Amino acid sequence: MKINSSSEYFGEQLYLESGRILEGYTLAYESYGVLNKDKSNAIVVFHALTGSQHAAGKYEGDSKAGWWDPLIGDDKALDTQKYFVICVNVLGSCFGSSGPTSQTKKGATPLRLKFPVITISDMVNAQMSLFKRLGIAKAYAVIGGSLGGMQALCVGVEYPEFTDRVIMLASTSATSPWTISYNKLAMEGIIKDSRFKDGNYKKEDFEELPLNGFAIGRMAGHISFLSPDSMNKKFGRNYVETDGLYELFGRFQIERYMEYNGYNFAKRFDPLSYIYIIKAMNIFDASRNYDSLSDSLKNIKAKMTLISFRGDMLFMPSEMEIIRDTIKDLGRGEKVEYHCVDSSYGHDAFLVEYDKFDFYIKKAIE
Length: 366
Fold this sequence. Notes:
It is a single chain. By secondary structure, the chain is an alpha/beta fold. It has 10 helices and 10 strands. The radius of gyration is 20 Å and the shape is globular.
């Protein structure tokens, strides 16, 4: 499967939900498969909080494939022999699209903390400009997990003619206080670290020694991506073999795992991008510009497939059930199907336990 990597610059103004204006922006994206003659076989994949446009395949020299590689490719759930699969890096991220540490207008200085707050709707609006430029007037389906699921729902509500199929995994219609509290730990860790310098750091500052506050905040967030059961199964009470049990800073295996994930992540992801994207996640509420969630969801014309995971502590199954029940209360029960996957892995199950849900995606696509 060939990976097509590209980016597009948009010189026009992007009017944001906040009332501010983004004076030009770039969107980086990847695509897999071939867009057919009438451009009707496009499947849009939306990535999660720390994801990127690299959803599948391997770059030359890479040992690790894209984040949803088991689902995207020839003869896979999103079959690239039939469909043109496209994934766009969201505004605010740090993998090629415009964000706080990149140029928004060619030749301009990065805006850093002056970069405007971006919402899920803003991310989707920008992507719609890209799809229009590519000639994709209607997608065969849109799909996403977590933050990607928020984008998929946003398409269904705000662009009801764009697709006839919306697939959401491990997501919600409004971010809960529980999830916001985890994000707060990460934001505080970043902005209170002296090396953050009010956002005026250099990109290379954290290549060798990551921002400590960011790493610690990420560790806290990572707890919410797993579950007590998955931690017990993966680590138990096993101790690091080279550490002494009665050494004050001796570590259990789970502690070493948290250190590894926190500090390595803080080396590869931009801290400013992180706080902008978690802000977008925090303020997401599909009913915000409507009288109620019912008033919002009644705009949806697409058939919805909702997939939650029993062990998800970040976006709990009950949150997806609210979407299902609201659509049913509108008298559109035939328009929604809901599956709660029996998983104890945690929130990240949608990135790991593919064999437990890929057939639901195949069914929805077919």
